[in-house]
Amino acid sequence: MKKIICLLVLIMSLLLTACGGIDFEFGQVGNSITVKANKATDGKYAQSDYFSVNKNQAVKVTSSLTGGQLKIEFIEVVVFHDTDGDVDIIPGALAATVTVGPDETKTVVLEEGEYIMALTAIGTAEGKISTEVVKQ
């Protein structure tokens, strides 16, 4: 049942994105994620793929936004890999929240585990942010 609901939410998100353009573009290499906000209007929302944080590590968020802000929620997840290569991501508790504007850098300390980022535009967010898992 959860898979059906997740699939329906994904399809609806894709349809809404197709109708209104792409508000967020994600690029991920390992635990480094880059997010480009394409004039994402107030309240627009997106989620990253999962990433891992090990012991004595933190997430450094560097903003190159030229306008607006992004609220970033770090959500704990449980990741299941099945024998077919499919991945199920089950969201858990909210671990931390940070808001970044133009030319800001913030460090978020998280417990060891796997996370996703949930991003929400504040105002009209335009530009890029990058996150990198770094030693604490």
Polypeptide structure, described:
- With 136 residues, this protein is mostly beta strands.
- Helix content is 14%, strand content 65%.
- The chain is built from one helix and eight strands.
- It has one helix at 2-20; strands at residues 24-29, 32-40, 45-47, 51-53, 57-81, 87-100, 105-109, 113-135.
- Strands 1, 2, 3, 4, 5, 6, 7 and 8 form an eight-stranded antiparallel β-sheet that branches.
- A hairpin with a 2-residue loop joins strand 1 and strand 2 (32-40).
- Residues 6-10 and 14-19 have low confidence and may be disordered.
Q: TL;DR?
A:
The chain has one helix at 2-20; strands at residues 24-29, 32-40, 45-47, 51-53, 57-81, 87-100, 105-109, 113-135. It is mainly beta and 136 residues long.
Secondary structure elements and their pairing?
Elements lengths: L1 H19 L3 E6 L2 E9 L4 E3 L3 E3 L3 E25 L5 E14 L4 E5 L3 E23 L1
Antiparallel strand pairs: 1-2, 2-8, 3-8, 4-8, 5-6, 5-7, 5-8
Number of E-state strands: 8
How would you classify the helix and strand content by structural class? mainly beta
Could you say which overall geometry the principal axes of the C-alpha atoms support?
globular
* SS strand fraction: over 45%
Major beta sheet summary: 8 strands, antiparallel
Order of SSEs = HEEEEEEEE
